[in-house]
Amino acid sequence: MTAPTAEALSAIASPRRRDMLRLMWGRELSAGELASNFDISWPAVSQHLTTLKQAGLVTERRDGRNRYYSSDETMVGSLAMILEQMWDNDLDRLASLAEEDERNG
Amino acid sequence: MTAPTAEALSAIASPRRRDMLRLMWGRELSAGELASNFDISWPAVSQHLTTLKQAGLVTERRDGRNRYYSSDETMVGSLAMILEQMWDNDLDRLASLAEEDERNG
DNA sequence: TCTTTATTTAAGTAGCGACTTAAATAGTAA
DNA sequence: TTACTATTTAAGTCGCTACTTAAATAAAGA
């Protein structure tokens, strides 16, 4: 669960990908429709979509020769929760380590 | 408010910086104490600290020849909130744009 | 089948970011 | 002042990431 989180964090850290996520928010867009909103090449958009897909931030649906993408609606809430959990978990872990440190002098 | 958020997002996207933030959680550490926890050079740590400071994720206190750093305790909550707000704001903006689009055919 | 459309994969370039070592700054102490 | 400690700034290297164009795949229609 740590790895996918880190992936999602760096995925969402990119302004370009945040713009893409917003455009796909609440609706499906084909790769081409999405790409037409940007001044970069289609392959560049496709590559970002792959990154977002791997991070679990978008879903892909194939229909004929089109591929439709949409932001995962639970994403923001999940990311916020995941951030907090990541912190909680790590704080617990660090607390244990600190105790051990003290015991070991 | 968009710029600092983006800064915080990419700052926290780095595993190294997340580790640093965790070590400084709930306590102050001098730059040197912090650096001794990592296998990278002190300048590298110093550079990460600058990044975190610019993103508003850590505070710096100078005392003599030491500089003490600490994670900003409100950070995680803020980041989560900011993420949600960023989305809400942008969704509002996109909604307005969509309406305008429809009006303009 | 051949062509067109939608999209990805491949291969390469350029800029950025994480690191390095060396030098500079700044505070304290002798 | 000189020396020492803590830390940063400077300058350079290297790998990763965002992009590019060209080629490949895959679906659908003539």
TL;DR?
2 copies of one chain form a homodimer. With 105 residues, chain A is an alpha+beta fold.
Q: Give me the Rg of chain A, rounded.
A: 18 Å
Q: What gross morphology of chain A would you assign?
A: globular
Strand order of the largest sheet of chain A: 1-3-2
How much of the polypeptide of chain A forms β-strand, as a percent range?
5-15%
Name the structural class of chain A.
Answer: alpha+beta
Number of helices of chain A: 5
- Show the largest interface: A-B, 23 and 23 residues
Which bin fits the share of residues in helices of chain A? 55-70%
Tell me about the biggest sheet of chain A?
3 strands, antiparallel
Number of strands of chain A: 3
Oligomer: homodimer
**Span of the ends, CA to CA of chain A:** 33 Å
Task: Give a structural overview.
Two copies of one chain form a homodimer. In chain A, 64% of the residues lie in helices and 13% in strands. Chain A has five helices and three strands. Chain A has helices spanning 2-12, 15-23, 31-35, 42-54, 75-103, and strands at 29-30, 58-63, 66-71. Chain A has a three-stranded antiparallel sheet. In chain A, α1 (2-12) packs across α5 (75-103). The radius of gyration of chain A is 18 Å and the shape is globular. The model of chain A has no long low-confidence stretch (mean pLDDT 82). The interface between A and B is medium-sized, with 23 and 23 residues. Chain B binds a DNA duplex (30 and 30 nucleotides) through α3 and α4.
